[in-house]
Design brief:
about 65% helix; mainly alpha; about 150 residues; single chain; globular
C-alpha cells in the first residue's frame, strides 16, 4: 500500500468537515434552485428597464449557500456576472454606493468566485477586476476581510 493513497483525515479526530463550517441553507435544494431561476427572470426584467442597482439588489438578496445547492450557486453567479457585464464602467461607483454593506460583501464573494472559475477570467476578467477595484474604493479593505473570514461561500 502506497502512503500517498492513505486518507489521513480518516485517522484524525479533529478533522473539520464541510458541513461543520456553517449551517446549510434552511431551504430545500429544489426550492433554492427555483428561487434562483425566479431571481434571474426578475433581474432580466429589471435590467431591461435600465435599473442596474435594483437588478443587483435582487440578485444579491438571500443568495444560496452551503452544500447541495451548487446549481443554484452557479446560476446566481451567472446572473450577477451578466449584471456586471451590462454596466458601464463610469456607473460602477454609483451602483456600489447604492448597495448596503451586506450586499457589498456578497458582491465581493461573487467577484472572487467569478475570478476563481476556470475560463471565466478570459471572458470577463477585466470586468470583474474593475468592479473589485471600485468596490474596494467604496467599501474599503474591511469588505475583503469580511469575505475571507465568512464561512458561507458563494
Amino acid at each position: 500500500m502506497s502512503f500517498r493513497k492513505i486518507d489521513i483525515d480518516a485517522y484524525d479526530e479533529d478533522v473539520l468537515l464541510e458541513g461543520e463550517l456553517c449551517e446549510p441553507d434552511p431551504r430545500d435544494p429544489a426550492q433554492v434552485l427555483s428561487d434562483a431561476k425566479e431571481k434571474q427572470a426578475a433581474v432580466r426584467s429589471t435590467l431591461a428597464k435600465g435599473d442596474i442597482p435594483g437588478a443587483l439588489g435582487i440578485a444579491l438578496d438571500s443568495t444560496p449557500y452551503g452544500p447541495n445547492v451548487e446549481e443554484a450557486k452557479n446560476l446566481t453567479l451567472q446572473t450577477v456576472v451578466s449584471i456586471l457585464n451590462s454596466t458601464k464602467s463610469s456607473e460602477i461607483s454609483n451602483v456600489v454606493k447604492a448597495l448596503s454593506q451586506d450586499s457589498q460583501d456578497t458582491l465581493m464573494k461573487y467577484l472572487y468566485k467569478g475570478m476563481g472559475m476556470p475560463g471565466w477570467g478570459d471572458v470577463s476578467g477585466s470586468v470583474l477586476l474593475g468592479w473589485h477595484e471600485k468596490l474596494t474604493e467604496v467599501a474599503g479593505t474591511g469588505c475583503i476581510v469580511r469575505v475571507m473570514t465568512d464561512r458561507r461561500t458563494a
